[in-house]
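Lab notebook, entry 410. We have the chain sequence and a SMILES string for pyridoxal-5'-phosphate, and the next step in the workflow is to get a structural model of the bound complex before anyone spends time on docking refinements. Request logged below.

Task: model protein plus pyridoxal-5'-phosphate, output structure tokens.
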Amino acid sequence: MSSALRSSRSRGPWWSRPGLGYEHGELHFAGQAVAALARLHRTPLYLYDAARVTENLDRVRAALAARALPFRVFYAMKSNRHPPLLRALRRLDACGLDTCSPAEVARARACGFAAENISFTGTSLSDADLDALLRHEGLVLNLDSLHDIARVGALAPGRRIGLRINPGLGIGYRRNRLLRYAGGRGTKFGIHREQFPAALRLARRHGLVVEGIHFHTGCGYLTPQLPVLAEIFSACQPFVAQVSRLRYVNLGGGLGIPLVPSDRPLNLSAWSALVAQQFGGRGFEIWCEPGDYLVKDAGLLLLEVNTVERKGRTLYAGVNGGFQLHIEPAFYQLPLVPVPVHAPGPRTRLRPTTIAGHINEALDILHRDAHLPPLANGDLLAFLNAGGYGAAMASNHCMRGAFHELLLSS
Ligand SMILES: Cc1ncc(COP(=O)(O)O)c(C=O)c1O
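Result returned:
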């Protein structure tokens, strides 16, 4: 893997951008010196940059607005539910929230979002879940099984609903099958094509008004995957065609960001052109619910080195966090790139170093063979692109679940 620290240009490493990079040899994020924040708040520490989230949201909105599409964006709070972040989004008033559990809906409401601005798409719902959800009048409810249609029909006849469909084809970061929500050997999500007529009959029987079609088929796609997205959109057309007077088609999330130097940013203009081509001008609104795209590159995870030792051919640096704090490298094989908080000098020899977490599991490797300067105990590492599905998926495995989060506003 190429170095995360060297750049062919003199401007800085490939990941640096305004607000993130080395200033006088010290890593800065959202205009603040990261080492000072770590000293003040201690590690493990998640830092989030509010301005970057806003920029990312603005970019999605601008891409859709450029196509003159009627649209709404619902931020998928499952990617990061830090209350200060949700409240900051509420103040911006530029998106609603996508939720997947009654507790997420409750948090969204507590952070100021009205029920009409919350879209819910969950799976394997219990009766208690449905009871709790139906208490939020106006909540947008996308149902992903015949079972749920029957239960909502019995509890709230006449209610407006959306149907989460499964177009039979998935998409994900590069060739990563672990991130696909449809296709392949089949997934648990959505109403399949052969079930769809029965779903519509069931809805009619209960007087439910189908106002939306929803699909979410995978995570992390970039420009090279757009042809697959075009196929997915085509596969959705037969579902859309069967519902008259649709209010919205919800494309789900899945928009990816570059994680390694060879990734290019998603071409949002090409993305929105595809959306407009397949769904534009049809009288319904286009909704989407990005999570990662808004928050992933707006977050850093700071950990401290506590052990440096060569074992066999591998140089390991042990740190005070592991897959219980950020699950993606271990479970989804997604890169979580570490960079030192103090920039290496121009002549420092970088060495392949494997970053090992402090969880007693073989899977607990945060990064293999990162090119890093010589590390010592007490050194700080910042893991890039840690703002999505990090803290949100954290566990207390090995009773090492403690960490802090901080939203930085410049
Ligand atoms: C229904 C639904 N919508 C949106 C998202 C957000 O996906 P992403 O963070 O990849 O944009 C997810 C993620 O799992 C999802 O399940």
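Notes for the group: The chain has a mean pLDDT of 95. Worth checking against the assay data. The radius of gyration is 22 Å.
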